[in-house]
Design a protein that fits this description.
The protein is mainly beta. The chain contains 3 helices and 7 strands. Strand 4 and strand 5 form a beta hairpin.
Length: 132
């Protein structure tokens, strides 16, 4: 699995802890990582993913339909799932403020089945770490 993930675009380092059952992926400083691509790479290596958490930094934006997203680069954003912590960052929408968020992008569905590979990942805010 470490090799599968290490070959993905934008990945600088992969640390695997078998004791904790966790994998930490560090992006290259100028690289972007596609979380859906990482999820597929893990499943392709024969390992099941229980959850995927991220720490991401970007700007809160709101689309024409009123949905919120975390814009991390001009070409990458994460749709934000609605919860109480979203209310803390809603006022920052479309402002120059930058926020750092710890959130969950994926959680394995109950039972043994995995989510559809084509299902879009939504960022569930677990913690607002910093507002700048």
């Amino acid at each position: 699995m470490k090799q599968h993930l290490g070959r993905q675009s934008g990945v600088q380092r992969v640390d695997v802890s078998l004791i904790d059952g966790k994998v930490d992926v560090t992006p290259k400083e100028d690289g972007q990582i596609d979380p859906a691509q990482l999820l597929r790479a893990v499943y392709d290596s024969g390992v099941t993913v229980a959850e995927m958490d991220v720490i991401a930094r970007g700007k809160i934006v709101k689309d024409a339909a009123g949905n919120f997203a975390l814009l991390v680069s001009p070409n990458q954003s994460f749709a934000i799932a609605s919860n109480d912590l979203l209310k803390a960052v809603e006022p920052l929408a479309d402002s120059p403020a930058v926020v750092t968020i710890r959130g969950e992008l994926y959680r394995k569905p109950a039972g043994k089945k995995k989510a559809a590979a084509s299902a879009p990942l939504k960022l569930l805010i677990l913690e607002v770490q910093k507002k700048e």
